[in-house]
Amino acid sequence: MGSLNFKSKPKLNYSKFNQINGKHPLQKSCKDAFITYQARRRHGGKLAFFNFDLAKEMGLIPMSHPEEVTPELEEKILETFSIVIINEYDIENEIEFPEEDILPNKYMATRYLQLQHPNKQGKTSGDGRSVWNGVVKNKGKVWDISSQGTGATSLSPATHIQNKFFQTGDPTISYGCGYSEFDEGLATLMFSEVMNKNNYETERCLAIIKFEDNISINVRANQNLIRPSHMFNHLKQSNYDALKDIVNYYIDRQETNGTWKNVPKTESRRYKYFLKKQTEVFARLAANFEDDYIFCWLDWDGDNILMNGGIIDYGSIRQFGLFHHEYRFDDVQRFSTTIKEQKDKAKYIVQTFIQIVDYLENKEKRPISDFYQSTFLRNFDNLFDEQKKINLLSKVGIAPKYHDFLIKKYNYIIESFSKDFSYFERTKSTYGLYEVSDGVCWDAIFCMRDILRELPQIILSRGETIGRQEFVDIAKSTYATQEDLAINSYRGAKIDSFQKNYMSLIKTIARKENKDEKDILLEVLMRSSIINKFDRVTGDSIARIVESIVQKQKKFDPNTMFSAMVDFREHQTFDPDNIVPKQERNSNTKKELKPIVTEFLQIVRDYREGI
User: Fold this and answer.
1) Which residue(s) pair with 141 in the sheet?
2) What is the DSSP string of 402-463?
3) pLDDT at 580
4) Where a domain ends, among 175, 201, 222?
5) Is pLDDT above 60 for 585?
6) pLDDT tens track for 450-472
7) Residue of 220, 336, 361, 465 with fewest CB within 10 Å of its CB?
8) What is the pLDDT of residues 144-200, one digit of tens each?
9) How far is the C-alpha of 68 from the C-alpha of 56, rounded, in Å?
10) Which stretches of 3-85 are assigned E, i.e. beta strand?
11) Is 580 exposed, middle or buried (0-12, 13-18, 19+ CB in 10 A)?
């Protein structure tokens, strides 16, 4: 790796890290939302990754900082984040630690509802192996920072299932040991950066500190790390004051960060505004997850998602290459929801928000069933359907400037096309349901990205649509058998209808713009080639990429890891309006990166249709 000479330059200022010291505004605003732990320095760790892009956005380092870890920077990162809590086991057993290692401030593990806990009211659940490091303020934004793998807290499921406290690092227990693994951090890093680049709200990886035996501390950040489950536990317990505190805290943070504009001042109107915003967030994210084939395991406890719709916990997150809508994650004690069921789960979360606001306004908790006909739930359905139409038009390659026009005046074409599209997207293999590495799946057999990418190019070159057999040959996936691909009269009619509606959309735009259909097709072709890129990342490909990095980790110092991540992320950008020239980097680095990134992209290509 080429290195920069820092000796001739002024010493860089890393004082912003001093803000991250365990203190967090939640500790003052919401007394029942957490438990605190004394923490101590953890020795023996080395910096494996640092996210320069995110750190600059957060203001932790100056924008001019080179993308290279200085000795001073690594020391500051380890000083700030290489910590472990002094937990109940340590106190019960009177374990002593060097006084100079004990940090002055206490760190919080937050309480929230979790369905895997014996107690279904959230009295025992929350951050089982994480603490919140604090906040950083920069340019009017407040960032939350938490670290996974900082020790076993009493909020872990293991503590209450086995009715005892665990020593951090106890080899007899996995999740309850309080540690996290290096490959977990890498998967979060690679997946979340791709999601963020493609306009998804997500918790992002700021740093990974590696220890022996594949153990790590994984540092994550987002502008608001509050989950629905941080509210739902207080609702289940009928703790009115605590619920009011956390809802007000969340609203205030959204307003402070400028995420929510013109928030009303009166309490009742603030809560209605809160409901409106949360309905919008969860309706649109449910549609986006379904259309981008993102499996997130939404459920009634609101644990696996942030309040702002941000993706968290990449251990169970998957992006499918095809619409594998029968996939279920096996979490030992239960199977997850499917991707199709996520809409209803998101809607139920919104229904719970409605119950919360009614409780806050009337000080009496009514059954959640009282709200199933709420106007907000009707709005949810309308927003969901609208977002689905926008997503379909975008997939085709139709620019956003035409979306409103088509939805308002030619909705019947979109709805007809949607039925055709959905038929092919949801068709499953005759093979049936079978076990995969982390659950069960039933394969989809058509790759709709392929047909949307190839169709405009063929129509442009030939001046006509394609035959039924050619359509199937282009759209078929590697999962499909000859039996799966048979063209009966119904399927044949669907192929014809698909192309007829496709061309109706093109012709409608051409008439509106007074342009030739070929001009519109060319524009669609250019956008579709990016949106429906052949090689798209999946959960399987991320897992294989992480395996490769772990096997070759001697090649990956923090600088190489960051550069490889950025190059990979840029290759996985599917927003035609967000494509920027690849950032120029050190020529030596580029040379070393080429085989690494090439291997990553080949893995993506090999697993592009998987789960």
Assistant:
1) 138
2) GHHHHHHH-HHHHHHHHHHHHHHHH-B-TT--EEETTEEE--B-B-HHHHHHHHHHHHHHHS
3) 60
4) 222
5) no
6) 999 999 999 999 999 999 999 99
7) 361
8) 999 999 999 999 988 988 899 999 999 888 777 999 999 999 999 999 999 999 999
9) 13
10) 34-37, 39-41, 46-50, 83-85
11) exposed
Residues 540-579 as b/e (b if ≥16 CB within 10 A, e otherwise) read bbbbbbbeebeeeeeebbbbbbbbbbbbbbbbbbbebeee
pLDDT range class, residue 391, cuts 50, 70, 90: very high
**Does residue 592 fall inside a structural domain?**
no
The pair of three-digit structure tokens given for residue 443, joined into one six-digit string: 């394969």
CA distances from 421 to 354, 388, 397, 471 (A): 34, 12, 14, 13
Report if residue 573 sits inside a domain: no
210 forms beta bridges with 46, 216
Residue at 44 is within a domain: yes
Residue 236: both structure tokens together: 């289940």
User: Coil, strand or helix: which one is 436?
Assistant: strand
Q: What is the pLDDT of residue 588?
A: 42
User: Could you give the CA distance from residue 518 to residue 212 in angstroms, rounded to a whole number?
Assistant: 60
Report yes or no: 440 and 328 within 8 Å, Cβ to Cβ: yes
Please state, in angstroms and rounded to a whole number, the distance separating the CA atoms of residues 337 and 454: 33
Query: Distance between CA atoms of 491 and 570, rounded to whole angstroms?
Result: 38
Q: Which of residues 531, 557, 578 is at a domain's end?
A: 531
Percent helix, strand, coil in the chain, to 5, is 50, 15, 40
Tally the domains of the chain: 2
Task: Give me the phi and psi of 49, to 5 degrees please.
Answer: -155, 145
Domain annotation covers residue 585: no
pLDDT tens for 488-501 read 999 999 999 999 99
Amino acid type, 260: W
Which range marks the domain in which residue 77 is found?
Answer: 15-222
pLDDT of residue 592: 73
Helical ranges in 203-309 per DSSP H: 229-236, 240-256, 267-291
CA neighbor of 342 nearest in space, from 303, 298, 302, 380: 298
What single DSSP character describes residue 330? B
| CA-CA-CA-CA torsion sign (297, 299, 302, 308) | positive
Residue 589: pLDDT over 60? no
Distance CA 279, CA 353 (A): 9
* Whether the predicted pLDDT of 528 surpasses 80: yes
Tokens of 178: 């309080």
Q: How would you write 117-156 as a 3-class SS string?
A: CCCCCCCCCECCCEEEEEEEEECCEEEEEEEECCCCCCCC
Q: What is the pLDDT of residue 332?
A: 79
For 169, which DSSP code?
Answer: T
Q: Which DSSP letter does residue 581 get?
A: P
Q: What is the DSSP letter of 15?
A: G
Strands 318-319 and 215-222: unpaired
Q: How high is the pLDDT of residue 536?
A: 94
Span 280-336, pLDDT tens digits = 999 999 999 999 999 999 999 999 999 999 999 888 899 999 999 999 999 878 899
Q: CA torsion 261→264→268→273, rounded to 10°?
A: -20
List CB contacts of 254: < 8 A, sequence separation 6 or more: 224, 260, 263, 277, 308
Q: CA-to-CA distance for 147 and 310, rounded, in angstroms?
A: 17
